[in-house]
Structures are given as structure tokens and as C-alpha cells.
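TICKET: design request
STATUS: open
ATTACHED STRUCTURE:
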């Protein structure tokens, strides 16, 4: 009888500890993400800037280097980039359950809102009233401005060298001039190969300079570098 009672007390304590741990995980996720599904307008380019401001600069959940790596991976893989980004940030900070919770907090408001709008649009005439068109026109113009501002702010952090500027310029022009299902993956692969070749050449050059400096300090030139 005493062993059964002790086992019951132990199970109750374990359950309480697990609930406390879950609450410690869930509450920060809720506090950090609860409003994003209602306030993050403007599309992925704006979302990325919002996430950087909130999770890198304000909360310090991840550093800027990890953010840049996640940004590249989320943009290069299929699917909604900002949704993948939010899931990854929360999963890295608090585990995959926190990432799943953040995904639901992020996605459900928009899904429910779009469902409600679809029901409303199905019940109106083909032509919307004039004030509605005027409102939508102003909303679209404001959205373009927000996207442009977010793109400039994000570029100031991500585009920091000549090679990256060249890749962005060439990729943007090429993507504007032609579109196809195979074209954008080909552009990404080409940009990746160009960056890899550039980095390897820079590393080799820096290695040669380092060896030359060591040879000069030792009073001799490394083999193969005489006369360079």
C-alpha cells in the first residue's frame, strides 16, 4: 500500500514538473509571437525585417550570423520563407514544439481572416463599390512603400560587399527579364557557384600572403614564391 502511494506521489510530482517546464516554454513563445499574426503586414520582405528587429536586436534569441544563414536557407527552399523563418527561430530557441506553436499563432489569424473574406466576397456583386476600390488602391500603395523600406533596411545588413551587390544586381535584372519554373533555381545555383569560386580564390590568396609574411619574418621566401 505504501509503495503504491509513493508511486502515485512520484507520478504526480513528475507530472507537475513537466507541466511547469511546458509552461516555461510556452509562455515566452506566446509573449513573443502572439501579435505577429495580426500586425505583420507587407509580405515576406517586411516579415524578415520584423523578425530581425524582434528576435535579433530586441530579444537576442539568435545572433545576426545565424539569422543570415536562416534567411538564405529559408529563401532557397520551397515554401513560404517568412513562415519557415519564424518556425526556425522559435525551434532553435525553445525546441520544435515551440516552433510548431509559433507556426499556429502566425498562420491561424490569416487563415481565418481569408476564410471570412472569401465568404463575404462570394455574397457580393461582381463590381465592388467605389469607396472599396479607393481603399484597396491606397492600401496597395502603402504596402509597396512598406516593402521598399523593409528591402532597403534588410539590404543594409545582408548586402555588405561587392560580390553580393553584383549577385543581387545581376539576379534581379535576370529575374525581371525572364521567368520560368527552372530559371530561378538555376539563378540560385549559379550565384552559389560564383560565390564559392570567389571565396576559394580569396582564401587561396590570403593563404599565399600569410605564407609570404611568415617567410619574410624567418628571413627566407617559401618555396614556390620566389620572385613573386
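STATUS: resolved
RESOLUTION: sequence designed for all positions
ATTACHED SEQUENCE:
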Amino acid at each position: 500500500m505504501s509503495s503504491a502511494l509513493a508511486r502515485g506521489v512520484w507520478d504526480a510530482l513528475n507530472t507537475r514538473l513537466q507541466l511547469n517546464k511546458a509552461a516555461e516554454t510556452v509562455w515566452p513563445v506566446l509573449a513573443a509571437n502572439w501579435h505577429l499574426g495580426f500586425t505583420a503586414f507587407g509580405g515576406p520582405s517586411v516579415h524578415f525585417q520584423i523578425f530581425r528587429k524582434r528576435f535579433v536586436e530586441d530579444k537576442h534569441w539568435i545572433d545576426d550570423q545565424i539569422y543570415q544563414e536562416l534567411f538564405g536557407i529559408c529563401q532557397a527552399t520551397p515554401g513560404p520563407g517568412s513562415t519557415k523563418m519564424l518556425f526556425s527561430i522559435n525551434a532553435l530557441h525553445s525546441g520544435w514544439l515551440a516552433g510548431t506553436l509559433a507556426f499556429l499563432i502566425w498562420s491561424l489569424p490569416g487563415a481565418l481572416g481569408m476564410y471570412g473574406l472569401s465568404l463575404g466576397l462570394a455574397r457580393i456583386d461582381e463590381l465592388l463599390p467605389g469607396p472599396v476600390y479607393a481603399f484597396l488602391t491606397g492600401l496597395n500603395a502603402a504596402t509597396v512603400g512598406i516593402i521598399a523600406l523593409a528591402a532597403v533596411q534588410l539590404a543594409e545588413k545582408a548586402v555588405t560587399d561587392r560580390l553580393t551587390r553584383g549577385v543581387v544586381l545581376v539576379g534581379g535584372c535576370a529575374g525581371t527579364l525572364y521567368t520560368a519554373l527552372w530559371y530561378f533555381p538555376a539563378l540560385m545555383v549559379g550565384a552559389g557557384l560564383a560565390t564559392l569560386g570567389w571565396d576559394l580564390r580569396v582564401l587561396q590568396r590570403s593563404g599565399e600572403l600569410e605564407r609570404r609574411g611568415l617567410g619574410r619574418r624567418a628571413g627566407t621566401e617559401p618555396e614556390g614564391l620566389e620572385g613573386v
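CLOSING REMARK: The CA atoms of residues 132 and 138 lie 10 Å apart. The chain has nine helices and no strands.
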